[in-house]
Amino acid sequence: MLLKVEVTTLSATKYRILTINPGSTSTKIGVFDSEVSIFEKTIRHDTKKINSFANIIDQYQFRKTAILETLDNEGINISKLSAVCGRGGLLRPIEGGTYAVNDLMLKDLHSGYSGQHASNLGGIVAYEIASGLNIPAFIVDPVVVDELAPIARVSGFSLIERKSIFHALNQKAVARRVAKELGREYSDMNLIIAHMGGGITVGVHHQGKVVDVNNGLHGDGPFSPERAGTVPAGDLIALCYSGEHYREEIMKRLVGQGGLVGYLGTNDAVEVEQRIAAGDKRAKLIYEAMAYQVAKEIGACSTVISGKVDIIVLTGGLACGKAFVKLISDRINWIADVIVHPGEDELQALAEGALRVLSGEEEVKIYPGNFSTAKI
Fold it and tell me: SS3 of 333, please?
């Protein structure tokens, strides 16, 4: 279901947007005049205070107060805001886009429909601030965006379906930016986008939909600075039933202590490159293996669209490393031209998503819409 949103504008062409991206012990906020950032700050929260809350979701009033106090201290008049946009949390699977925060979404965020995570606070705090100003609250492209083709859901093991959990916010934002740079429409292009950060996800963007992507959270795709990625299933099962490890220990070794951390004891790619420069042969092997697996995943993704790839995009924090980018590009540039968009500007992506709705470029989507995943 789609619905037009009525908004109060600053002028015929400008909209002031507050964006909110909660992390485990910090909250990033930004204020934008349309797509132009006029203020950004990371609010660091006292760890003892954060730990005093029984559940993550109980922090929303505390986080809201911290945001409003910061804006007030910076002299930013919130009465001039046109909208508030928060990071989307672990909701029901939905298609990509900008969603108005509604009662069902708030209920699912509070209950942790798909799990408890700091990002769940984004929509709640956005709504709390926006409702007091009588302006709309949005979320944009949460990690649960699911546009997989039915064939991509088949895992090969009938008890488990492949799931779409990936860096949707950055991947979608970069896809739209690249299309604009090339003078084309995102909905008319075939792109492969590799987001490379603490986790790595490689998505096939076919005419505006991510029809296939690895689950970057729970054991799928390339290993990353902190995650193990795909591991041999039989050996993993044997390890789990060896009696030598607890479930929580294995999960930590897969997510958080996998990848570079597991092999080299660090998730810092810059440190790894320094170790390589100093002659560390093991660091060189593991670092090149990570690039190898990313390139291999991109190559596999190219088959999804029969090799008809317009552009390959490398983005995320690891894309800032020229050596790492070259290791990947040298293996894949025969498929299509490679564009590098280093880093991930999530506050900017949130602002752009809200702006598309406020300016009438897109219609706002109403959660959960008529989307449902295909059953196998």
Answer: coil
What distance in Å separates the CA atoms of residue 178 and residue 43, rounded to the nearest whole number? 31
159 CB contacts (<8 Å, ≥6 apart)?
none
What does DSSP assign to residue 363?
P
> Three-state DSSP class for 58?
helix
The Cβ of residue 239 has, within 10 Å, a number of other Cβ atoms equal to 14
Which pLDDT belongs to residue 344?
A: 87
> Strand runs (DSSP E) across 207-360, as ranges?
209-213, 311-316, 338-342
The mean pLDDT values, 10 residues at a time, for the chain of 376 residues are: 39 84 93 96 92 92 96 96 95 95 96 89 97 97 95 96 93 96 97 96 98 90 95 94 93 92 96 97 98 98 98 97 97 98 94 97 91 50
Residue 368: the pLDDT is: 93
Q: What residue ranges in the chain does DSSP mark as E strands?
A: 2-3, 16-22, 26-33, 36-44, 83-87, 98-100, 137-140, 190-196, 200-206, 209-213, 311-316, 338-342, 364-366
What does the block give as tokens for 93? 């699977």
- Look-up of token digits 């291999």: 296
Token couple for 347: 């506050």
| CA dist 3 → 144, 154, 271, 301 (Å) | 21, 33, 49, 34
Q: In Å, what is the CA distance from 44 to each residue of 72, 239, 300?
A: 16, 39, 40
* pLDDT in the model for residue 371: 58
Cβ 122 vs Cβ 139: under 8 Å: yes
208 alpha carbon, distance to own chain's centre: 17
Residues constituting the chain: 376
pTM here?
A: 0.89
Tell me what pLDDT residue 114 has: 86
How far, in Å, CA of 223 to CA of 232, rounded?
13
Report pLDDT for 5: 43
